[in-house]
Amino acid sequence: MDVYDVIIRPIVTEKSLTLREDGKYVFEVHRRANKIQIRKAVESIYGVKVSSVNVSNMPAKITRTRGRRPTVRRAAWKKAVVTLAPGERIKALEA
């Protein structure tokens, strides 16, 4: 798997922005990617040193709406919280 296929997008939420103060960045990653592939992808794409990687599988959700389509199923996805070495920052995501 190519390093650009591993990282799908960075997650920008209020909680993930507070984690950035501790040097932790949150990404949506490929469902079949493991911690080693995620570490290599972040290090090669952003040019930083990764200290640790925590991964969690986010379950699919069913949302109910009004109208003709009463239920919509959102797909399951995988989330990775990447902790960088002390003093390291990803400048591309800080803007």
Report on the biggest sheet: 4 strands, antiparallel
Helix segment count? 4
**Number of domains as seen in the coordinates:** 1
Shape: elongated
- The amount of beta strand, in percent, is 35-45%
Distance between the termini: 29 Å
CATH-derived architecture: 2-Layer Sandwich
Evaluate the radius of gyration: 15 Å
Query: In which range does the helix fraction lie?
Result: 25-40%
Map the helices and strands:
Elements: H1 3-6, E1 7-10, H2 14-19, E2 24-29, H3 35-46, E3 50-58, E4 61-64, E5 71-74, E6 77-84, H4 91-94
Antiparallel strand pairs: 1-2, 2-6, 3-6, 4-5
Written description of the protein model:
The protein is built from four helices and six strands. The model has no long low-confidence stretch (mean pLDDT about 95). The chain has helices spanning about 5, 15-20, 35-45, 90-95, and strands spanning about 5-10, 25-30, 50-60, 60-65, 70-75, 75-85. The protein is elongated and about 50 Å long. With about 100 residues, it is an alpha+beta fold. The strands form two sheets. It has a four-stranded antiparallel beta sheet. The protein has a two-stranded antiparallel ribbon with strand order 4-5. It has a single domain (about 5-85), classed as 2-Layer Sandwich (Alpha-Beta Plaits), CATH 3.30.70.330. The longest helix has 12 residues, at about 35-45. Strand 4 and strand 5 form a beta hairpin.
Name a few traits of the molecule.
single chain, Alpha-Beta Plaits, two-stranded antiparallel sheet, 6 strands
In summary, what is this structure?
The protein has 95 residues and is an alpha+beta fold. It is built from four helices and six strands; from the N terminus they run αβαβαββββα. 27% of the residues lie in helices and 37% in strands.
